[in-house]
Amino acid sequence: MAAEISDRVREIAEARGLPGSEVFERALERGLEDLWEDLILARYFDGELDREEAIEQVGRTKVERAEREREVVKEDIDWGLNV
Description:
- By secondary structure, this protein is an all-alpha fold.
- The protein has one domain (23-82).
- It contains four helices and no strands.
- The chain has helices spanning 2-16, 20-45, 51-58, 60-82.
- The longest helix has 26 residues, at 20-45.
């Protein structure tokens, strides 16, 4: 796996004309942002944060999208249980 990551970093760096260290830095920032958003949304759905706090942390668009996705999954589960 480490070799695969190294190959990908090298390929991205060459394609973008960036040093490998910058590719790693951008990947870390992007990954941390995703993990942070996941944490905030989980806290919101678990009732640890209210909706406005979640919106303040990750933005209205992301909260509304997560709510829609959660509703779709709930509908699928309800449908599956009633078949």
